[in-house]
Design goal:
The complex is a heterodimer of chains A (279) and B (387). Chain A is built from eleven helices and no strands. Chain A has helices at residues 33-62, 70-75, 78-111, 120-132, 135-146, 150-160, 162-174, 178-186, 191-221, 234-242, 246-273. Chain B has two domains: 7-245, 3-Layer(aba) Sandwich (Rossmann fold); 259-367, Roll (CBS-domain). Helix content of chain B is 38%, strand content 20%. In chain B, strand 12 (290-293) and strand 13 (299-303) form a beta hairpin. Classes of the chains: A mainly alpha (279), B alpha/beta (387). At the A-B interface, helix 8 and helix 9 of A face helix 2, helix 4, helix 5, helix 7 and helix 8 of B.
Chain lengths: 279, 387
């Protein structure tokens, strides 16, 4: 390595810390209304969720389960029904969301590379179809192909929720300004370097927004997987509806809502704190 | 001039797929070590394409690119680009990285040690006139356009490349800040002596920044390549003449200094002198105006014959016309012209460092200087043709 010559300031005689009178437009970082709602909303949400949970708890306590019909008493048993079903709901949604990320993010990256960009409209159409298809139909197709059970449920959900992550990955990567790529490449960064160090970090907020959407879709959809033997809270809601037992389906539905709201809040946290600084 | 050019393009051409007309047509070009070569031309002439061929952001269809005599046409383009600083109009600072991280981009890729990178970024910030203390941890969005381009230049200088490619670097900056950045950059270049290829569409910027200017026509063909002085004094054809536009002769005055003029004696009297002496001097020289000097030999006022009549030695106050600013020997003839048109006498005084009267610059002097420059440029081209 050659020695680097020491260079003195080229604004001789001018202290560099002095404010530059001709160059004063240092932009202030100001918060828009939307940003404010975003920031403070983040701290309000847990209280609302807690409030709903409290309401549900009080409602549950107020039910006279001892004297209720046996189906209702069984359906609303916390330890053998509600808790395991809620866990199933979360596990199915979590796995299918992970599956979506594992498939859609790399796919989105590939489809924004020059080589594959041409086929990206075709792939997006297919992904669109996945979401446009009735969920019920998709479950049946899954049942035919994969048989009943949790694994099939997870895969079907993943297909259904693929689009938002795929689309957001592509939009996020395309949204990175061309001059940044030009500058990166021009300084000798490899294509992979530009992808990893510039494109992906800058696309993270958009990609996370897509993942958050997919996650919520998955939690909601997991209510339906009881149809193909996937279990979860759909079982309770369904039995409540079938037997016309209001407390059963209300409790089932509110629990789904609570799970969805809680995870959505976690998603919002991730969106906020995984956003690269300076953006 | 060194024998081996720093950058040598040998019949480099670029034809985009699907197009029969080349964007750059067999361009041969030398850039000497330490010079700023400006590529200038109308929009769409291929000047940016030409620049990007040098660091192979665009791969040439044919021809060779030599750096320091080494053929890099087939070299690894990423490694090649790490040796070449690159500044673009849109700057392209990475918004998610701090200023110092941005500047450290290339050193990091080259695997420098942390300590060395830190020292280098601090030094570079100072070099481009930004206080490291204040700016190193900022993010690009917290900078104004001018500051951002300073960082852009610092980033391009990151690993101290010999060669810099600059694509309209000051194009998107307001005129006042642009002028400051240009001046600072020229001062910086005096120390750094990088080999720079600079693209602009602004002929005035080209004249200001370039040691040499290449005026490009369609398909990046060189219409004229020379020093700004010579191009201004002798545009080789109508294309170049049109492109440099009106006032090119006057712009050429920027490249000549007052000290280069041969200035004959000019009538002057001191305040203590008798007015009769002044009248005699005026009549002898056949002039209209005479310079009145104060007791230290500094020019004070313009006097006409009428102003001298009835005056007494030491009592010239309020007579004649004000003199205005003076020229020093290292001022440009352009500055001389400016002072001249403001002066009552249509000419302006030259003084030495102590402010003492040296002589008077007149329109005829500028005229002669311009004609000499034009003659020399023409002679130069005629000689080239003969050779």
């Amino acid at each position: 390595m050659t020695e680097i010559p020491v260079i003195t300031s080229f604004r001789e005689g001018i202290s560099t810390s002095e404010p530059d009178p001709l160059d004063p437009q240092e932009p202030r970082v100001r918060m828009t209304m939307a940003e404010r709602v975003n920031r403070y909303g983040l701290f309000v949400a847990p209280f609302l969720i807690g409030l709903i949970a409290l309401g549900l708890y009080l409602y549950y306590q107020s039910l006279d389960l001892e004297n209720a019909v046996i189906q209702q008493r069984n359906a609303l048993d916390w330890d053998t029904r509600l808790l395991p079903q809620a866990q199933q709901q979360i596990i199915i949604a979590a796995w299918s969301t992970l599956l979506v990320i594992a498939v859609a993010v790399p796919l989105g990256i590939l489809l924004t590379r020059p080589l594959l960009r041409r086929i990206s409209p075709a792939v997006l159409t297919v992904a669109n179809a996945g979401q446009a298809m009735p969920a019920y139909g998709l479950l049946v197709i899954g049942l035919i192909i994969g048989g009943p059970g949790r694994t099939t449920s997870i895969v079907v959900l993943a297909v259904f929720a693929l689009l938002p992550v795929l689309r957001n990955t592509m939009v996020g990567l395309d949204g990175v300004e061309r001059p940044l790529l030009e500058a990166g490449r021009g300084m000798g960064m490899t294509r992979l370097g530009v992808l990893l160090r510039i494109e992906l970090p800058l696309a993270v907020p958009v990609i996370i927004a897509g993942i958050r959407t997919a996650m919520i879709i998955n939690i909601g959809m997991a209510t339906l997987v009881f149809l193909i033997g996937g279990g979860a809270l759909g079982v309770t809601i369904n039995s409540g509806l079938k037997n016309q037992q209001e407390p059963v389906y209300v409790i089932g539905a509110v629990m789904v809502a609570l799970i969805a709201l809680s995870f959505d809040w976690l998603g919002a946290l991730a969106e906020r704190y995984l956003r690269p600084k300076g953006v | 001039m060194s024998s081996q050019p720093k950058i040598h393009l040998d019949r480099v051409a670029k034809t985009y797929p699907g197009s029969r007309i080349p964007a750059v047509d067999e361009l041969t070009l030398d850039v000497q070590e330490g010079e700023i070569l400006v590529l200038v031309g109308p929009s769409g002439c291929g000047k940016s394409t030409t620049l990007r061929l040098i660091n192979r952001m665009i791969e040439p269809s044919s021809g060779r690119i030599m750096l320091d005599g080494e053929d890099v046409t087939k070299a690894n383009p990423d490694k090649l680009r790490r040796r070449i600083g690159y500044v673009i109009q849109q700057i392209g600072l990475f918004p998610h990285q701090t200023i110092s991280q941005n500047i450290a981009t290339v050193p990091k890729m080259l695997g420098w040690e942390k300590e060395r990178i830190h020292e280098r970024t601090e030094q570079l910030l100072t070099t481009v006139g930004l206080d490291p203390e204040q700016y190193r941890d900022r993010y690009p969005k917290e900078l104004s356009g001018g500051q951002a381009q300073r960082v852009g230049v610092a980033r391009a200088l990151g690993a101290d490349p010999d060669i810099m490619l600059m694509d309209e670097p000051f194009g998107a900056i307001d005129p006042i800040t642009r002028e400051r950045l240009q001046n600072e950059f020229l001062r910086l270049q005096e120390e750094l002596r990088k080999t720079i290829v600079f693209v602009t569409h602004d002929i005035d910027e080209a004249i200001k920044m370039g040691d040499r200017i290449a005026i490009l026509g369609e398909r990046s063909t060189i219409r004229q390549i020379d020093t700004p002085e010579r191009i201004l004094a002798y545009p080789v054809d109508d294309f170049v003449d049109d492109f440099i536009g009106t006032g090119s002769t006057i712009k050429g005055l920027n490249f000549q200094q007052v000290s280069g003029l041969k200035i004959p004696d000019y009538p002057a009297i001191s305040v203590s002198d008798d007015p009769q002496k002044g009248i005699a001097a005026l009549q002898e020289a056949g002039r209209e105006w005479l310079v009145l000097l104060d007791d230290q030999g500094r020019p004070a006022r313009w006097l006409r014959e009428d102003d001298l009549r009835g005056a007494a030695p030491g009592q010239y106050d309020g007579r004649g016309e004000e003199l205005g600013d003076h020229l020093s020997p290292d001022d440009t003839l352009f500055h001389a012209l400016e002072l001249m048109v403001q002066s009552a006498a249509g000419k302006t005084c030259v003084v030495d460092e102590a402010g003492r009267f040296q002589g008077v610059v007149e329109m005829a002097h500028l005229n002669k200087a311009i004609r000499r420059a034009q003659y020399e440029a023409r002679a130069h081209y005629e000689e080239l043709e003969r050779a």
